[in-house]
Design goal:
- This protein is an alpha+beta fold.
- The protein has two domains: 181 residues, no CATH class; 172 residues, no CATH class.
- It is built from eleven helices and nine strands.
- A hairpin with a 4-residue loop joins strand 2 and strand 3.
- The protein starts with a helix and ends with a helix.
């Protein structure tokens, strides 16, 4: 407690310097939390979308990317398509309970890009079992809107029809599932179709998914066949790259905060070399003096980290609004998680330790007589 009280006294004594250091840490941690919240939100959105689907196998062209939730609903898909003949062979798989070809599109809405999935009513009910209020039928010329999309685009009440170019589709119903599917529109596919962007497969026995996937890869070497777990793993690779990119940008602010913290602690150390020597002379050990410096640095960085997390939560909301407007997303993206806030606080503690590192080395190596001679 003695080292803590001495450190607190010195922080208060140098108010202006301490305040500037605290602000530097605040901005660094705030930018980290705000930027990384976008990657956290993307990861959460992908997990929500895959969890909302009852799909056991995904079959895609070799060049397609396993990214189910692009900003416009079609990112990740290549120009290649899968033929109807392949779909027929997949449907003949002994363990296949249901297999359908899936296409996506993106329509310009009033406020955002509307992701569109082409599926018939029976397939919607089978692959999205959590959807409520699903209408009894989905004839051609009608569209089903997710509740979140309908609210985003049309306010509290759903419209009677949706206009896309020269095509006008009447709204068959508004569905809700409490997940990512609430931001999609569902349309019955045309009878004539040249190919599919994906094939979704439900299996009678999900435990045989890996074996069925291996068999399909051997039969169709030009296609990707992924289980649900493999699809999520492929998607998370891109999420990790997004996380690293945003964390790298935020790390610039962290490095500046470390420099500011180290500068503050060095100035404080050089000003008090005689004080430290006196403490050593009256019986304080090296560890006591070093702990006092470390407490001082951790106080500043910890307070800055706590305020930075709060600041990052506010900035995350503003940044999310900007991303939604710029990319015309129909759904919010940023996600603040307890783990992200913990990472922000941990990072602020590391800033404090790094800022005190050189001053700690100087104090540890200081000789008492040299310190007493310091003016």
């Amino acid at each position: 407690m003695l080292t803590f009280s001495l450190a607190l006294r010195n922080v208060i004594r140098n108010r202006e310097r301490s305040l500037l250091t605290l602000i530097g840490v605040l901005l660094a941690i705030g930018s980290f939390v705000a930027l990384v919240s976008l990657a956290e939100g993307l990861s959460r959105r992908i997990e929500m979308e895959l969890d909302s689907r009852d799909v056991h196998l995904y079959i895609m062209p070799e060049q397609a990317l396993a990214l189910p939730s692009g900003p416009i609903g079609t990112i990740g898909y290549s120009q290649d398509t899968i033929s109807k003949d392949i779909l027929t062979k997949v449907q003949e798989l002994p363990n296949a309970a249901r297999a359908v070809g899936v296409n996506r599109d993106s329509w310009k809405g009033r406020h955002a890009i509307m992701p569109v999935v082409y599926l018939d009513r029976e397939s919607i009910a089978a692959f999205f079992p959590h959807l409520g209020n699903l209408p009894d039928d989905l004839p051609e010329g009608q569209v089903i809107l997710g509740e979140g999309l309908a609210r985003q685009e049309f306010g509290s009440g759903p419209p009677d029809a949706v206009q896309h170019g020269q095509t006008k589709l009447s709204v068959a119903g508004v569905v809700r599932g409490g997940g990512f599917q609430d931001y999609f529109a569902f349309i019955k596919p045309a009878a004539e179709n040249n190919g599919y962007q994906e094939i979704w497969v439900q299996l009678r026995d999900e435990n045989l998914a890996s074996g069925d996937a291996a068999a399909l890869r051997s039969e169709f070497p030009g296609l990707q066949v992924l289980t649900r777990k493999e699809y999520l793993a492929h998607s998370n690779v891109f999420v990790r790259y997004a996380w690293l990119l945003q964390a790298s940008i935020a790390s610039i602010g962290v490095l500046i905060a470390i420099t500011a913290s180290m500068n503050t602690m060095l100035m404080s150390t050089y000003e008090r070399m005689r004080e430290f020597a006196v403490l050593r002379a009256i019986g304080a050990g090296r560890g006591t003096v070093c702990f006092m410096l470390l407490w001082e640095s951790l106080m500043l960085s910890g307070a800055g980290g706590l305020l930075g997390c709060l600041f990052g939560m506010l900035v995350s909301g503003v940044l999310d609004e900007a991303v939604v407007v710029l990319l015309q997303l129909p759904f919010p993206l940023a996600q603040i998680t307890p783990l992200l806030l913990f990472q922000g606080m941990l990072l602020s503690m590391l800033v404090g330790v790094a800022g005190a590192l050189i001053p700690l080395i100087l104090i540890w190596r200081q000789k008492i007589m040299d310190g007493l001679r310091t003016e």
